[in-house]
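Form 7-S
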Amino acid sequence: MTTGTAAAPLLEIADLAVGFTTRAGHLRAVDGVSLTVADGEIVGIVGESGSGKSVASLAVMGLIDTAGTVTATRLRFAGQDLLTLGARARRRLAGAEIAMIFQEPMTSLNPCFTVGFQLKESLRVHQRLRGRALTAAAVALLDQVGIPDPAARLEAFPHQMSGGMCQRVMIAIALAGNPRLLIADEPTTALDVTIQKQILDLLVALQRARGMALILITHDMGVVAETCDRVVVMYAGQVVEQRPARALFARPRHPYTAALLDALPERALGRRRLPTIPGVVPGIGDRPDGCLFHPRCARAQDVCRTDRPALAPDGAGWVRCPLPLGDPA
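Output:
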């Protein structure tokens, strides 16, 4: 799967799989995911909880613990093979050239240390700053992410700050290594609507100012419509559709993508009820034969129940469906 650019992609993933062995059996949380991200591109990864979005990003960061297994035919960043990179080199890369903002800002920061201590720790590791230069850089980063009176905030503990302020601190820590790729995993979770908009605007502004690539993981299609160049739709660990954002919103090809768009509140104006998708994402014990989405799909036919579809080229994008909607865009 390519981005359509001539230059080699910054991040290249082919057939990524992540599995976990549990008492209930083996769970394939990520199942053959392939995607690329170009320098300076904003890519949205969307899908319901349990679709494998966060697990795929943790695999890229090298943060899958010993209970999980990660395989891929290709996993490259800026020309480096992440599959063969040594543990020390992988640690140097994570947090520096590739950084990640995690969900739940109030729990992502260590409550026992001040904001300044945690931010300075990243700056010491990634930029090797000390003394006054370290403090000045920490203040500058807090100012860049929109925290008022940044010098005084260095002495604050996380519990003394709001969720929105804590998320801004997390963004500052992520930027401490001057990353080429920033992964934002549900960056507006647990924040009110006004603060969500501020955080998203901040991320896009920082992405443009620094020229870095941004992967935005979310279940909110409205957020993706406002920010992303390209969209990857995941379901039950698989990519089911990928195409430029404008084309996807204008003419979705996979029934799951169409169902997600139909559930947007702004598309339900004049209706008595907001459309929903029946059922849930399958787990270990209820993964169906054929297309994994067919038990929830109103358009399912016999072929959907028996044949497991492959991700296939489709116009300007890719789709995993034997009976795509409409004409490709």
